[in-house]
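User: I'm writing a short methods note and want a consistent example. For 3-deoxy-D-manno-octulosonic acid kinase, I'll paste the sequence; you return only the structure tokens, no commentary, since I'll be parsing the reply automatically.
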Amino acid sequence: MTPLLAGGTIGRLIRDSYFWVGINKSRPMQEWALLNQLHSEGFPVPQPAAVNIRRFGMTYRANIITLELPNTETLADRLIQAPLAPEIWQRIGTTIGKFHLAGAYHADLNARNILVDDYNRIYLIDWDRGRLRSSPSAWRWKNVKRLQRSLRKIASFSYLNFSSNDIDAFLAGYNSGKRS
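Assistant:
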């Protein structure tokens, strides 16, 4: 079960509460619908199971419940243990590239929202504020840059087995879908 938390200055004031805008426009229902669509189309995301919304007057608190992805760990945790083979970086790039080609925008693409399982399959989690975008634009490259910033930020706080060669392998995988 993942609690949804507000970010920024407002988030520090209201913690895990949101202004009520109706059930269909609520963040957990939008995330559930997106996850359900992506999962049904075969994308590697957790299968949504339920949404828990508790309304308090003009605000609400919520959780989204997804099925567990067994034997997975975050990309960040994996990189603390050991470097990844270039083939895994390519697989990560290919996976994210497929999401992007389908118009799936992940609002918080970072090394903690990418899971790798025991068979090196890649999953994207935490789709809060994610959405499907119909037109290709610069958002795809900005999303990739966000992931790169995340890796560099984590590397500045702890030892990560991460290099510029990894970015090259990632980009090779990411761009491979554009040719097929």
